[in-house]
């Protein structure tokens, strides 16, 4: 099990640890000290290989759970409000993963793949095409369909935006 913590209010720049716990013994196994102020969301890839988390300090981090190393660490001028793991492709020894995340006004599709030259995973991203007109949207929740074709992003204004994952466009 994993939990994201809120930093103490007694410090100016408090750490917000993520604690990995062994459920059999209920003892902490590892602590990730990356975020400040608080953890917004965290989640494992479907196979448990990676842990991703977003923080109140506008960071988005992915760890490889085999060796607890940081695979991707991103920072944005706006807070990452949510993410979801999407597809996992097995082509050879090292699988490739896709996931979506959003800041308050943008939605991204990421690819996490293994590079044989450096012998480690790295990520690339593409911004999804958004509606050209209408309200300024703040994305704060998400889901996907069981076929991994559609990505649904809910907004603070009560809208449901539907994206075609393969074509990376708003429908």
How is this fold's topology laid out?
Layout: E1 2-4, E2 15-22, E3 27-36, E4 39-44, E5 50-55, E6 59-64, E7 69-75, E8 80-89, E9 96-103, E10 107-115, E11 120-127, E12 139-144, E13 150-155, E14 160-164, E15 169-170
Antiparallel strand pairs: 1-2, 2-3, 4-5, 5-6, 6-7, 8-9, 9-10, 10-11, 12-13, 13-14, 14-15
Explain this structure to me?
With 171 residues, this protein is mostly beta strands. Helices cover 0% and strands 58% of the residues. The chain contains no helices and 15 strands. It has strands at 2-4, 15-22, 27-36, 39-44, 50-55, 59-64, 69-75, 80-89, 96-103, 107-115, 120-127, 139-144, 150-155, 160-164, 169-170. The strands form four sheets. It has a four-stranded antiparallel β-sheet with strand order 4-5-6-7, with no helix packed on it. The chain has a four-stranded antiparallel β-sheet with strand order 8-9-10-11, with no helix packed on it. A hairpin with a 4-residue loop joins β2 (15-22) and β3 (27-36). The termini are far apart.
User: In what range is the share of β-strand residues?
Assistant: over 45%
Low-confidence stretches: none
Quaternary class: single chain
Helix content: under 10%
What is the tally of helical segments?
0
Q: What's the N-to-C terminus distance?
A: 36 Å
Main-sheet strand order equals 4-5-6-7
Which shape, going by the Cα principal axes?
globular
Order of helices and strands: EEEEEEEEEEEEEEE
Q: How many strands appear in the DSSP assignment?
A: 15
Mean pLDDT: 85
Task: Name the structural class.
Answer: mainly beta
Mind summarizing the main beta sheet? 4 strands, antiparallel
**Rg (C-alpha, Å):** 17 Å
């Amino acid at each position: 099990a994993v939990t994201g913590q809120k930093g103490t209010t007694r410090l100016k720049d408090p750490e917000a640890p993520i604690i990995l716990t062994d459920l059999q013994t209920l003892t902490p196994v590892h602590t990730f000290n990356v975020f400040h102020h608080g953890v917004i969301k965290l989640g494992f890839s479907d196979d448990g290989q990676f842990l991703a988390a977003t923080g109140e300090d506008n960071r988005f981090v992915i760890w490889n759970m085999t060796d607890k190393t940081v695979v991707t660490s991103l920072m944005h001028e706006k807070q990452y409000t949510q993410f979801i793991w999407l597809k996992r492709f097995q082509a050879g020894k090292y699988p490739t993963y896709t996931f979506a995340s959003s800041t308050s006004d943008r939605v991204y599709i990421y690819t996490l793949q293994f590079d044989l030259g450096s012998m480690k995973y790295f990520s690339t991203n593409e911004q999804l095409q958004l509606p050209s007109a209408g309200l300024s949207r703040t994305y704060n929740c998400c889901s996907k369909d069981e076929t991994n074709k559609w990505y649904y992003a809910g907004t603070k204004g009560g809208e449901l935006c539907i994206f075609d994952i393969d074509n990376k466009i708003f429908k």
